[in-house]
Write a structure and sequence with these properties.
The protein is α/β, with parallel strands linked by helices. Helices cover about 30% and strands about 20% of the residues. The chain has a seven-stranded parallel beta sheet. The protein has a six-stranded mixed beta sheet with strand order 9-10-11-12-14-13. The radius of gyration is 25 Å and the shape is globular.
Length: about 450
């Protein structure tokens, strides 16, 4: 195990009931005792204590520093918190591993770059610093850095053409748009006549020429950067280190971790080597353009082949629609004219209702949790309808199904979450009206 210097170290939080006295004999000694702290127990009364004692990964005592002394033996590790706070280990319910780490380590990294000038300078700086690269990949550009039609369509290829005549391929920070230069389109084999897959868009000028971006399922046409096994492991380990430094001891990963290019599952490899010191609950992404039953069958086989207390593959991830900034979120009412798609444009779902309902039903039959990306109010309505039918078809089972993001929800659908027992997965950060984004991107389009 790698050394961890975090206070939120408690992987399993089992609080002692009642007066927080020891479970079992008062003569038993703990593996470790934490004293002189401000310890939040997270019980119903929000009790704060000074000390905890831990044995076999479980808390056996929570109370005063004085009373904790009875659990200290010759082999007990005693940690003096010196007044610091200890909290239960946190679990993030929606993470895209390994986050921005691959970009930070190996690509043009535009995450957190919010202005047009800084965006262009960062790209140019990376190209100048790496003149021998054949293709430049990047990640994290913000639509909010642009204006006019570049908000609706994304940035033009000419902006990248001015920097280099080598292929440049950069993914937006939300992962729903790819920005390419002319050489990038040629590298991907995409022309103005390329027909994107259903649910995908290749943006074009009024004259029918390539604009510079591809969206949603059209991204599948674009090659990804190839990393080595060592690079993947470096990125995943760095990501887990960062999460633990923030106090996280568990996470729901929105993909199953498999990197097909090198046939590697970093989570699996780390778990087998004993270095996966976080709980990881993985999703398998189910594509609407492939046979859903076959994909779910493959997920069943993966779940059978390897699952431990630390690493589980127990959920299926669906995308009901795209995003507002890509004008691909599926709405009940049309986008404004700033979207550039016509007066009645509401976009479209990535799944038909019939296919979604059938896939949900089969997934629930096979004891998977279902986790659905839904941005627009029409997408959420269709997803709730599909859940209602699929759960009815699996009557008697216990469900923990999830709809995540929920940027727009019709008022009449809000109560349906409670009626159907659907978890509304919303994180506070998503409600933040981000500078250079809300006023520039979402508000004009809606």
């Amino acid at each position: 195990m790698r050394n961890r210097k975090i206070i939120a170290i408690l992987i399993v939080l089992i609080l002692v009931i009642g007066s927080f006295t020891a479970c079992g004999s008062s003569q038993e000694t703990a593996d470790s005792v934490w004293t002189n702290g401000v310890i939040y127990t997270a019980d119903e009364a929000d009790t704060m204590v000074e000390a905890v004692a831990v044995m076999d990964g479980k808390i056996i005592f929570a109370g005063s520093t004085v009373d904790a002394e009875k659990f200290i033996g010759d082999a007990t590790i005693v940690n003096d918190l010196e007044g610091k706070m200890m909290i239960p280990g946190m679990t993030d319910s929606h993470l895209h591993t390994p986050g921005t780490m691959m970009a930070e380590l190996f690509q043009i990294n535009l995450n957190g770059v919010l202005s047009l000038e800084a965006t262009i300078d960062t790209i140019k700086g990376y190209v100048d610093a790496n003149p021998d690269m054949d293709v430049y990949f990047g990640e994290g550009f913000s639509i909010g850095a642009f204006s006019g039609m570049e908000v609706a369509k994304g940035p033009t290829k000419e902006r990248l053409d001015e920097i280099t005549d080598k292929p440049v391929i950069i993914t937006s920070y939300d992962g729903h748009i790819v920005w390419l230069n002319s050489a990038g389109f040629e590298f991907a084999g995409v022309t103005k006549d390329t027909v994107p897959p259903a649910g995908g868009t290749v943006e074009k000028t009024e004259a029918g020429e390539l604009w510079g971006t591809m969206k949603e399922l059209a991204i599948d046409l674009v090659p990804e950067q190839e990393f080595t096994e060592e690079q993947y492991l470096e990125g995943y380990i760095a990501f887990l280190d960062m999460q633990q430094a923030y106090g996280y001891t568990g996470m729901t990963s929105m993909s199953n971790g498999i990197t097909a290019a090198v046939n590697l599952d970093p989570f699996l490899k780390m778990d087998q080597e004993g270095t996966l010191d976080m709980y990881v609950f993985c999703n398998t992404v189910i594509s609407p353009n492939e046979d859903a039953t076959a994909q779910i069958d493959a997920a069943i086989e993966k779940r059978k082949s390897y699952e431990t207390e630390t690493y589980k593959n127990g959920s299926l991830k669906f995308f009901a629609d795209g995003v507002i900034e890509g004008v691909t979120g599926y709405l009940l009412e049309p986008y404004t004219e700033e979207g550039g798609m016509g007066a009645d444009f509401v976009s479209e779902p990535l799944w038909t209702k019939e296919k979604m309902e059938a896939a949900f039903t089969y997934g629930l039959e096979n004891d998977f949790q279902i986790h659905v990306h839904s941005i627009g109010d029409a997408a959420t309505k269709q997803t709730l309808d599909s859940f209602e039918a699929a759960q009815a078809a699996n009557e008697g089972k216990e469900f923990r199904n999830v709809i995540t993001h929920l940027q727009l929800v019709a008022p009449e659908d809000i109560t349906r979450f409670g009626e159907l027992g659907i978890i509304a997965n919303m994180q506070p950060y998503w409600a933040f009206k981000e500078p250079y984004w809300w006023e520039v991107v979402d508000m004009p389009l809606l």
